[in-house]
Amino acid sequence: MKSRISGTGSYLPKRIMSNRELERIVETTENWILERTGIRERRIADETEAASDLALPAARLALEAARIDANDLDLIIVATTTPDMFFPSTACILQAQLGAGQAAAFDISAACSGFVYAMSIADQFIRNGTSNRALVVGTEVMSRILDWTDRNTCVLFGDGAGAAVIEKTKGDHGILSTHLHSDGRLWNLIHVPGGGSRIPPSISMLAERKQFIKMKGNETFKVAVRTFEDAVNETLKAAHIRPSDLSLLIPHQANIRIIMAVAERLGIPMDKVVVNVDRCGNTSAASIPIALDEAVRQGRINDGDLVLFEAFGAGLTWASALVRW
């Protein structure tokens, strides 16, 4: 018994923020952003949209693609670093919105690696017989935790959600393997210091702008390239395949320079790599499921294709998964 992805969906907020618009907000230029990140624009949620509001249309599209009803779900996992609130979980709020009364629901926090982490958890639930049909969602409203005076971070991120229905199956197709890693010693490369129990909300915390993302960009870039490459090689070795055997690589959409560097090191041509960072920016846990849904709806994934997911995020965390479509 294994699991397979039977339906995907995604949602992007209507508002598009271009690099030109950012030029009017922070000291930067369109060319500076494009050359260093590959990002031309990103989507920004409106004031009424929380993480569950972005997740809902993505989840509904995934259910529709899988041809199942919300009540057929027995598990909902939401990966997010920008939940609606500390508690209850965004997964429980989404469960109520969907009317999925039979499902267990919970959130996980693994930053940009969150969707692959959540997919791996769902896969284990299905393999051990605890679950039959799971909904896995990555949803982020990153614009709420951005310091719009910090050009090193505010230009990178966008908002959005992606979802996948994962069901039990038999045979050669499905999720072949998942690989999860973390190194907590590097937690301070990317983090939001304030707002939790260590530095709770206060006037001084807000004045020091500790409620926003802090990132050591150059150090993060170097670690990201190395761990991306290691994650792919680990997955290929486990499956006894070569990079040329892959039909498609769907990486976390952090930075085009990172994506291209990893593809070059592995000898994977860019026409086999899904890229939407230019239009979406870094949507954290939502980036892989959004890219996956776009690839599915564009007809880039066919029956029997080998598809590899790879992600890297705060924690530090990194993860990969190999799927036979």
Q: Tell me about the largest β-sheet.
A: 5 strands, mixed
CATH class of the largest domain: Alpha Beta
Through-space gap between termini? 16 Å
User: Tally the helices: what do you get?
Assistant: 11
- Tell me the name of the CATH homologous superfamily of the largest domain: Thiolase/Chalcone synthase
The amount of beta strand, in percent, is: 15-25%
Helical fraction equals 25-40%
Number of domains: 2
Order of helices and strands: EEHHEHEHEHEHEEEHEHEHHHEE
Q: Count of DSSP E strands?
A: 13
Q: Provide mean pLDDT, rounded.
A: 97
CATH topology of the largest domain: Peroxisomal Thiolase, Chain A, domain 1
Give the C-alpha Rg.
19 Å
List keywords for this structure.
single chain, 325 residues, alpha/beta, Peroxisomal Thiolase, Chain A, domain 1, five-stranded mixed β-sheet, four-stranded mixed β-sheet, 11 helices, 13 strands
What does this protein structure show overall?
By secondary structure, this protein is of the alpha/beta class. It has two domains: 2-171, Peroxisomal Thiolase, Chain A, domain 1, CATH 3.40.47; 176-324, Peroxisomal Thiolase, Chain A, domain 1 (3-Layer(aba) Sandwich), CATH 3.40.47. The chain is built from eleven helices and 13 strands. The chain has helices spanning 19-23, 30-37, 51-66, 90-98, 114-127, 151-154, 203-207, 217-239, 256-266, 277-280, 287-297; strands at residues 2-11, 15-18, 41-44, 75-79, 104-108, 133-141, 159-169, 174-182, 190-191, 214-215, 248-251, 306-313, 317-324. The protein has a five-stranded mixed β-sheet with strand order 1-7-6-4-5, sandwiched between helices. The chain is globular. The relative contact order is 0.19.
